[in-house]
Amino acid sequence: MPGENLSRDEARERAALLSVDGYEVSLDVRSAVGEDTGDGPRTFRSVTTIRFRCNEPGASSFADLLAPSVTAVSLNGRDLDPSEVFDGSRILLEDLSADNELVVDAQCAYSRTGEGLHRFVDPEDGEVYLYTQYEPADSRRVFANFEQPDLKAPFRFEVRAPEDWTVWSNGVGERQDGVWRFAETKPISTYITCVVAGPYHRVTDSYERVFEDGTRLEIPLGALCRKGLAKHFDAEDVFLVTKQGLDFFHDHFDHPYPFGKYDQAFVPEYNLGAMENPGLVTFREEYIFRGKVTQASYEARANVILHEMAHMWFGDLVTMEWWDDLWLKESFADFMGSFSLVGATRFTDGWITFANRRKAWAYRADQLPSTHPVTADIRDLQDAKLNFDGITYAKGASVLKQLVAYVGQDAFLEGARRYFKRHAYGNTRLGDLLAVLEETSGRDMGAWARSWLQTAGVNSLTPQVVLGADGRIEELAVVQEASVIAPADHPELRPHRVAVGLYQRSQVGALERYARAETDVAGARTVVSELAGADAPDLVLVNDDDLTYCKIRFDETSLATLREHLGGLTDPLARALCWSALWNLTRDALLPARDFVGLVLRFAGRETDIGVLQMLHAWAESALVHYVAPQWRETGGRALAEGALAELRQAEPGSEHQLAWARFFATAASAPDDLELLKGLLDGTEEIAGLEVDQELRWAFLEPLAAHGVADEKVLTAELARDDTASGKRHQVRCLAARPSAAVKARAWEQVVDSDALSNALVEATIAGFGQASQRELLAPYAPRYFEAIERVWTERSIQIGMDVVRGLFPALQDSPETLEAADAWLAAHEGAAPALRRLVLEARDDLARALRGQACDAAAGTSAG
Q1: Which residues contact 378 (CB under 8 A, 6 or more apart)?
Q2: With contact defined as beta carbons under 8 Å apart, do 702 and 716 qualify?
Q3: Average pLDDT, stretch 228-255?
Q4: Most buried by CB count within 10 Å: which residue of 9, 429, 457, 614?
Q5: Phi-psi region of 543 (alpha: psi -120 to 50; beta: other; left: phi over 0)
Q6: pTM for the full predicted model
Q7: Catalytic residue among 135, 269, 308, 843
Q8: 201 has which bridge partners?
Q9: How many secondary structure helices (H) and strands (E) does the chain include?
């Protein structure tokens, strides 16, 4: 049989043949505790009963299961020989009846990669914690099923677990005679079923809502984490945002939350940010903050909570038919996360974060050779796994923000309400959504969809200003171009609803908006007639207020103004948009990277929005590592470290800005004096007023010390003894791999590439420590080894670990034409490799080519300046 990589054609054929009435899944996870025998993978018993219909009696099909062994298979009372019908990934089902019952008794494997049923042993107290994670197709690692989103069904779970454990699932559960039994779910897809089990710490609350017709809705709320994190768990804030979100979505969706209870579990070694399992949302436990963090971190957590909540309607209640339309849930949830964040919580500047952070992710993805329309062509499950990208999430959300501006918020939300009512518990395609939006807006959604959802690439919008003899604007036009870096088959010029803002400097030096016009941009050039006759601007900001999805460009006057007066922009959203535009110019090799670094050094200290400031720190570091000319790296690095330290000392004691500058100083520190300061802050011989060096900040200071050979294994072992937790272990592993030693790098490489002994979290930590920008020469031997190893790794390891290795170990720090040639040679020699693997290499190769273009631009600027 074809194997575990289910294709779209196979899924469509099976959906046309079968419909599922229900699942009963019985798991026995008592084997999760106790010593490991070491004889093969640790397994648990999984017994699944599936009742389903076949509209062509006598036909054949298959069920999905990834398991080390199958004990028994029964189809309609007939015992089948597992060795004949099970090939390791599929169970052959022949001579089906009109009504069928399949029973599969299997030994399934616990996971250490975050896929399927993940087993985690807490190093702090030895306790074992379990949770499941399935998207897009890993529930088949836990129970036999039909693993595709359009074969929805109700599920009943029962779980046998150790006596001192509690078990949670999608439905309400209770323990009877040693077995946890859970209420039957509504019809849902396999990938959003869930089980969490172990000695988790749990806090409870409840949500109540009385609707206009007098009906009352009560939702039990729960929040879970490991016992070791309980002292850090601010469940009250999680519940606050949860209740605010439920209020917001009930106000706007006119469809009560449909899945009973609402538990939220923060779990260890999680690959994603979170997962929208109805009734039991799972999050990575890093959203429980062990030390002081900025408000940007709390905002990010709130956004994720609301994103997953939006999925209860967009994704769980109504689900895409196949992964082609993944955007029908992820784009909507990403948009709704920010929409509700601003509308319902204390984080009223959420659109600034969206413009500055989420869109940066989208712009990068949309200029890669792998760029694709928002509605993608997903041939199989490997394609689906890679499609959880910046286009599906952030570009799709940006497009929806543009759609709201295009049709109006009321029409958009009324369309959503009709969509839920019409397709509740069903599956949809693009046309189903467009139909309701056409009804509510009266607009032709087909043309809009063709431009925005069915083509790829990002447009750039540039202002052209002609001044009259009187010094006023005679004509202002917006010029639209297709991206010159996107593939040639994506030349689309799209309709944009934009605001164009005019800014002037005031007598006190502030840069403020004095005129604004909202207009429709179409084609290559659009005249904004409303602004004719206005005073001459110092800055023209196309896409003011961030209504559309585009790259902003500047005319010469505007760019000159920003170089001198960017810090004077009083509006935080306008300032964030300008920073984002300048970063795009840098990545496009249109602005020398050293100029961007200089702008950060000059103006970042005046940035009031903490999320924007932290983004600027990340961009400045990226500019130094990838885009400045190699000969300027040392100079630029010293400048960043000195600038960061100056801002750190000037920041308000105890403020979140002080914390952000402290972390940035640590990433930039390399000179002996800087490293001595970090050591002093750790051992208490140095002090900066108001700066609390908590455990998380200690690890942030230790990584550069380790990378520069100042903190050795003994120091890092002592720090782990101080922080002997799961989080501490991840930090220590990262710092150990960061040390500047050939033996250290060889050991890290072997642990990640040649062994599968490490869990997913420790693989991630090792890779993060391995690739230090200050160790380019030390890492050079691993460039050829990378290209020799990746196909084997992709074949032998799970797709998650394969993705981590292929992305994380690409020799981007060997930024030379020779590395580019090596990537091209691998691609030419491996045309038959898995498409998903080729995509990852092609993307990394494109990032490297972009870096080399940026370095050439920066070198030319340095030569002309010299």
Answers
A1: 8, 322, 323, 324, 326, 384, 387
A2: yes
A3: 97
A4: 614
A5: left
A6: 0.95
A7: 308
A8: 225
A9: 29, 28
The C-alpha angle with vertex 547 and arms to 546 and 551, in degrees rounded to 5, equals: 60
Residue 405 has a pLDDT of 83
Instruction: Indicate the SS3 state at residue 451.
Output: helix
3-state helix, strand, coil in the chain (%, to 5): 45, 20, 30
- Cα separation values, 179 from 158, 193, 265, 266, 685, Å: 7, 19, 21, 24, 57
Longest dimension (CA), the chain: 92
Q: 3-state DSSP call for residue 185? A: coil
pLDDT digits (tens, 9 = 90+) for 831-859: 999 999 999 999 999 999 999 999 999 99
Residue 1 has pLDDT above 60, yes or no: no
Rounded to whole angstroms, how far apart are CA atoms 763 and 692? 30
**Cis before 136 (ω within 30):** yes
Please tell me what DSSP assigns to residue 534.
P
Q: Distance (Å, rounded) from C-alpha 512 to C-alpha 508?
A: 11
Rg (CA), the chain: 28
Contact 110, 44 (CB under 8 A): yes
The residue type of 52 is: F
Nearest C-alpha neighbor of 782 from the set 759, 750, 758: 750
d(CA 89, CA 65): 5
Q: How far apart are CA 755 and CA 282, in angstroms?
A: 28
Task: Please confirm, yes or no, whether 163 is among the known catalytic residues.
Answer: no
**691 CB contacts (<8 Å, ≥6 apart)?**
648, 653, 654, 658, 659, 662, 681
What end-to-end distance do the CA atoms of the chain give, in Å? 66
Residue 236 — φ and ψ, nearest 5°?
-65, -35
